[in-house]
């Protein structure tokens, strides 16, 4: 059930201007009027500086600006609390990773599998240290600067905003005095006018006229006193207004300076956070690459062969003992002499299921590839792009924030969105190689003195193209593509392409399996237009 959000008491929405089409929101004049009329009043407010746009009738201008500055401090407090919680999460995650890295995995294993699991533990500990370091960096480089800027905002409120708020209250009080004095003065003036009209009607009536004249005299004395008070209050308000105009203009300038600084500071602060997280991702990717490198050295056939060589108990099958009759004529030692054995020469029958990746990409790797996560085929890993020089440049670039980095990032995003250079991560890491190399069972080593040469079965030949290039895997076109240079080739949806090279830039090499449309010399195609066949 959806929950309706209640409007905040600190929102600026109640001060928002309902702007009509073609109307200046400040001067409330139409666009046509500003183009035909002359003079600064008709031209509207060209400047959008604070000092020129928070005046008007009433006290809405100060109310809006005071609220803006209070909300700015609230945002800084919330950002500081966000960094505090983010650092605590990273520290807790790093601590738990460290506890996880203290566990033992495969201590009784042998060969490269044991080494690979040890690398897993080592890299987990390294990731733990990276997350703890990130927590420290967030506190030092993100949270502390926000705290310092929040102190600056508090100082501005104490030394600049609080005095101007007091002056506003003083000005408002003086304006209320003027309003009350004007009401009294206007009331007395109306009463005197009424008395004079009555005196005209009571001419020659004696006592009634005398009583009216006495009232008129007292009213004249009262109105003179009220007139004096009214004039003094107006003069005082005029002096306060002149002083207020100067102070308010200076306050608007200081608020605009502080707000511009705050927004630039917040932008850089959050930008640095994004750089820190990107750097951590690079570090985690390097750890994953180290694990993959260790797994590259793991060949199950080789490890099992080494295990058999080191711990095998031999290939002699001892025949069961035969019955020996102890009739007193044969010695008991004859039973030992008659013990026989034979050499094990069985043919292995494997009942393990076919690996899923030999037939189709598994759902997990497909989903990871769709999410932009790098997935490398463990048997075809040497064809996957790995460029640590580029990673180092990326990591160095991530530490440099500013408008130049922002412009570079924005332009890079635009180029990618326009389809100028395909991103290899979209399809490159979810492809499996076409040919599966099946493991063949090997006979056990012969006993000493009975060594014999056992031929090793030949591996199946690696498929190649007509040009002699090794085929890595097959892909299927997802979209139509029209070549833009001589080295590229056209293809249509559903075409099958044999991939022969996967450079880091995402422009792969290969050739169409359709010989009728294959053109010599054209072998380049974009990798983000295809998927695994």
TrEMBL record:
<dbReference type="GO" id="GO:0005543">
    <property type="term" value="F:phospholipid binding"/>
</dbReference>
<feature type="compositionally biased region" description="Low complexity">
    <location>
        <begin position="329"/>
        <end position="344"/>
    </location>
</feature>
<dbReference type="GO" id="GO:0120104">
    <property type="term" value="C:mitotic actomyosin contractile ring, proximal layer"/>
</dbReference>
<keyword id="KW-0175">Coiled coil</keyword>
<feature type="compositionally biased region" description="Polar residues">
    <location>
        <begin position="1"/>
        <end position="20"/>
    </location>
</feature>
<keyword id="KW-0206">Cytoskeleton</keyword>
<feature type="region of interest" description="Disordered">
    <location>
        <begin position="322"/>
        <end position="365"/>
    </location>
</feature>
<dbReference type="GO" id="GO:0009898">
    <property type="term" value="C:cytoplasmic side of plasma membrane"/>
</dbReference>
<dbReference type="InterPro" id="IPR001452">
    <property type="entry name" value="SH3_domain"/>
</dbReference>
<feature type="region of interest" description="Disordered">
    <location>
        <begin position="391"/>
        <end position="425"/>
    </location>
</feature>
<dbReference type="InterPro" id="IPR036028">
    <property type="entry name" value="SH3-like_dom_sf"/>
</dbReference>
<dbReference type="GO" id="GO:0030036">
    <property type="term" value="P:actin cytoskeleton organization"/>
</dbReference>
<dbReference type="Pfam" id="PF00018">
    <property type="entry name" value="SH3_1"/>
</dbReference>
<feature type="compositionally biased region" description="Low complexity">
    <location>
        <begin position="21"/>
        <end position="32"/>
    </location>
</feature>
<feature type="coiled-coil region">
    <location>
        <begin position="202"/>
        <end position="229"/>
    </location>
</feature>
<feature type="compositionally biased region" description="Polar residues">
    <location>
        <begin position="407"/>
        <end position="418"/>
    </location>
</feature>
<feature type="domain" description="SH3">
    <location>
        <begin position="470"/>
        <end position="533"/>
    </location>
</feature>
<feature type="region of interest" description="Disordered">
    <location>
        <begin position="1"/>
        <end position="32"/>
    </location>
</feature>
<dbReference type="InterPro" id="IPR031160">
    <property type="entry name" value="F_BAR_dom"/>
</dbReference>
<protein>
    <recommendedName>
        <fullName>SH3 domain-containing protein</fullName>
    </recommendedName>
</protein>
<dbReference type="InterPro" id="IPR001060">
    <property type="entry name" value="FCH_dom"/>
</dbReference>
<keyword id="KW-0597">Phosphoprotein</keyword>
<dbReference type="InterPro" id="IPR027267">
    <property type="entry name" value="AH/BAR_dom_sf"/>
</dbReference>
<feature type="domain" description="F-BAR">
    <location>
        <begin position="48"/>
        <end position="303"/>
    </location>
</feature>
<keyword id="KW-0728">SH3 domain</keyword>
<dbReference type="Pfam" id="PF00611">
    <property type="entry name" value="FCH"/>
</dbReference>
<keyword id="KW-0963">Cytoplasm</keyword>
